[in-house]
Hints:
Number of strands: 8
CATH architecture of the largest domain: Up-down Bundle
CATH topology of the largest domain: Zinc Finger, Delta Prime, domain 3
Amino acid sequence: MKATQRDFASQAQRAARQCTVFFFCGPDEAGASAAAEAIHAMLPDAGERVEISGADLRRDPVLLGDEARSTSLFGDTRHLFVRANGDEAHDALATLFEGEGEACPVLVVATSATDKSRTAKLLANRDDALVAMFYPPDLRSMTGTVRDLADGAGLRLGGDLAERIARASGLDQRLAKSEVTKLALYLDASPASPQNADITAWEQIGAKTEEDGFMPLVNTALSGHIRKLPAEMARMRELSLNPVGIALAFERRAAQLAQLAARLGRNSDVNGFIQSEKQARRIFWKDERDLREQLRIWRGKRLDRLVARLTALHRHLLANSQSGEILLAQELTQIARAAAAAAK
């Protein structure tokens, strides 16, 4: 069974009843993770969550089958949640299918994987598996997602509040959902008791926009502004910005650049292209200058290498939280130097 973000919502309930393996992939890691959590909520009896890394499965492909067919300490139900990179889980899933006996649900979120990867091809034609592919949303589609989330929470959003929340979340569905949930709690809203929400209410509890947090650092590094980087790194430490959160912001911008580069194709008129994207409301006007500058730098193989490095950085930060700031500073310095060299 296959799905994309366009038809995932309509297929999710059936997949949760019918499938035991769920593979979420594509360049929008936030969307894939949100979809995995949605399936988890729909499972008839999800039980205990057991998390396994893709690296562990690559080293020991038998581990997945052993865990999927074992019971929890107290005999309760369970499900497995795997975060993998690329095809790290392929051999483990193949081994799982070769085993005998009933297995618990397995949810895999695979960064740097697509519906054309080996793992996706292994699963796509199976009736007991779902392959769901997610592309980065643009501002318009994320604004629509925020409105859907608000409707489900009993919120009636006034003015351009949905777009502001989409912007502040960096087009990350998980962060957008968190903002909507906080706003619903603040206003005591529910589907049974809807409440109106305006900018004033959200400003009381909402997160600051990424312009106040991650994005100045993202734009400094990706635009190759090496002289500004030390000040931005100092600001990161002063504000205690989360290194993993910063890495996610870089990944989202890289995914956005990949999407723009694909639409741009061989067209050399970056200025005209960015202008048309702004007019179509696929990018926000405040991002226009930075995207124009970065799209000239990060295209083709250089952009592919950037995405791979950011994925590796994210993985290293999760595994080495104690030295997160040092790892991040080293990698961002290398990225800024590469951008500066390409911009000359």
